[in-house]
Automatic annotation (TrEMBL):
It comes from Lentzea aerocolonigenes. Keywords: DNA-binding, Transcription, Transcription regulation. Residues 23-89 form the HTH gntR-type domain. CDD domains: WHTH_GntR (cd07377). One of its GO terms (biological process) is negative regulation of DNA-templated transcription. GO terms for molecular function: DNA binding; DNA-binding transcription factor activity. The keyword Transcription applies. This is GntR family transcriptional regulator. InterPro entries: Bact_HTH_transcr_reg, Chorismate_lyase_/UTRA_dom_sf, Tscrpt_reg_HTH_GntR, UTRA, WH-like_DNA-bd_sf, WH_DNA-bd_sf. Gene3D superfamilies: Chorismate lyase-like, Winged helix-like DNA-binding domain superfamily/Winged helix DNA-binding domain.
Length: 255
């Protein structure tokens, strides 16, 4: 067995460079730049483009490509007129019945929301199937921008049956936790949820609301939540910035 240099378990094996060693020059620079970023620490401004190009013996065009990929991955952040900085760690939301509010506060982050839309709509075929309604039944649609310490990180659309929750809008603080309102004021008991996560690009409208680059990869979460009797409570579509957000789940073996 050939011995190879040790690698960190949270990093790509051999920094993602194949055994034959033939990779685009920008990628090799990216790997070196990532090591530099880790040593600089959160919030530190990156050295100038000229200095880095000389340090890695590459053209500025090659360096810019390496920096751009680290920006897309959330390792660096550009600030107009200020420079490029080492980004803070990504926020982590558990894939569980923990609310967005609770998940953020566990990390010492204050969650807030900006309301974009509160409206009554008629259930289409998909909504009626997911919420066990008849097509055309009234549904409350709540759309809100999600913030963490006043930084926009996501956009959430939630749909609930108006017949099941006729006084929802009277009891809900639109900028507060919907989960808390349902459990504490309306007596709902969450039991399980079905979730699907995929990567997408934001639409122009979504990018504008979240305040992000439309080319930035986003994490899209679809969820239908159920109560203890197996009845659906809500259907949610949550879009999160891929550079600032990640999900974690604890898995258990079947018994």
């Amino acid at each position: 067995m050939n011995r190879v240099p040790p690698h960190r378990a949270d990093r790509p094996v051999r920094a993602g460079i194949p055994e034959h060693g033939r990779v685009p020059r920008y990628y090799a620079v990216k790997a070196e730049l990532f090591d530099l970023v880790e040593n600089l620490g959160e919030g530190t401004v990156l050295p100038s483009e000229r200095e880095l190009a000389e340090r890695f013996s590459v053209s500025r065009v090659t360096l810019r490509q390496a920096v751009s990929e680290l920006v897309l991955e959330g390792k660096l952040i550009r600030r107009q007129g200020s420079g490029t900085f080492v980004a803070p760690p990504k926020l982590v939301q558990p894939l569980s019945l923990v609310s967005y509010t609770e998940g953020m506060r566990r990390q010492g982050v204050e969650p807030t929301r900006t309301v974009i839309t509160i409206e009554e709509i008629s259930a289409d075929e998909g909504l009626s199937r997911d919420l066990m309604l008849e097509p055309g039944d009234p549904v409350v649609h709540l759309e809100r921008v999600l913030l963490a310490d006043d930084e926009r990180i996501g956009l959430e659309s939630t749909y609930l049956s108006l017949r099941r929750f006729p006084d929802l809008l009277e009891k809900l603080d639109p900028g507060g936790s919907l989960y808390a309102c349902l459990t504490e004021r309306l007596g709902v008991r969450f039991a399980e949820a079905e979730e699907r996560v995929e990567t997408v690009l934001a639409t122009p409208r979504e990018a504008l609301l979240i305040g992000t680059n439309p080319a930035l990869p986003m994490l899209l979460l679809h969820r239908v939540s159920y109560d203890v009797d197996g009845h659906p409570i809500e259907r949610a579509r949550s879009l999160y910035r891929g550079d600032r957000f990640s999900f974690v789940a604890r898995l258990h073996a079947d018994r």
